[in-house]
Amino acid sequence: MTEIISTTILLILIMDPLGNLPVFMTILKNLNAKRRRIVVIREMIIALIVMLLFLFLGEKILNILNLKTETVSISGGIILFLIAIKMIFPSEDNNGISSNEEPFLVPLAIPLVAGPSLLATLMLLSHQYLHHMSYLVGSLLIAWCFTIIVLLLSGFFLKLFGSKGVNALERLMGLILIMLATQMFLDGIRTWFQN
């Protein structure tokens, strides 16, 4: 039981639903509340499928594609960096996000929820608890449910902060994302040089 609790807490911290909330709010702010809920649920289901795939097949997938885990970290850092640039310097007409378009797969499902660090952690945990995969799946589902509940409340936070508050959070999250992206990229480079 304590293993499930500690693993669940670890996964929640890595998924970082509170940290991702401003990004979700910013990207989905042009959608109406009903559509926003549908998109959040869809993206979270995609993220869950990817997380389960990496939990059970992650290392095999990377071996088949001849990719190393540091490659996942470097590419995730580049994607986050590009997203952060758009958040800090939005285009004049639509704040970087078209009101007619909605995100699909990138950036919400991957890399914000199912990011490189989470996918790498799931692969490591699957090695550590090879004979207790049911515990890992249970922990992942609990962490996923907690994350989706937090993200579904984004409409409440959108009303609370207003459009100016969301724009300020967008710039702030962009700055934080640039730092996280750079760190993710550098971690991948460091690991690559060590191997």
From TrEMBL:
Pfam families for the chain: MarC
Signal peptide positions (record): none
A GO cellular component entry from the record: plasma membrane
Main location group: membrane
The entry's keywords: Cell membrane, Membrane, Transmembrane, Transmembrane helix
Positions of transmembrane segments: 6-28, 40-58, 70-89, 104-125, 137-160, 172-193
Location(s) in or outside the cell: Cell membrane
InterPro entries: Multi_antbiot-R_MarC
Topology within the bilayer: Multi-pass membrane protein
UniProt similarity note: Belongs to the UPF0056 (MarC) family.
Record's protein name: UPF0056 membrane protein
Source organism (scientific name): Buchnera aphidicola (Aphis nerii)
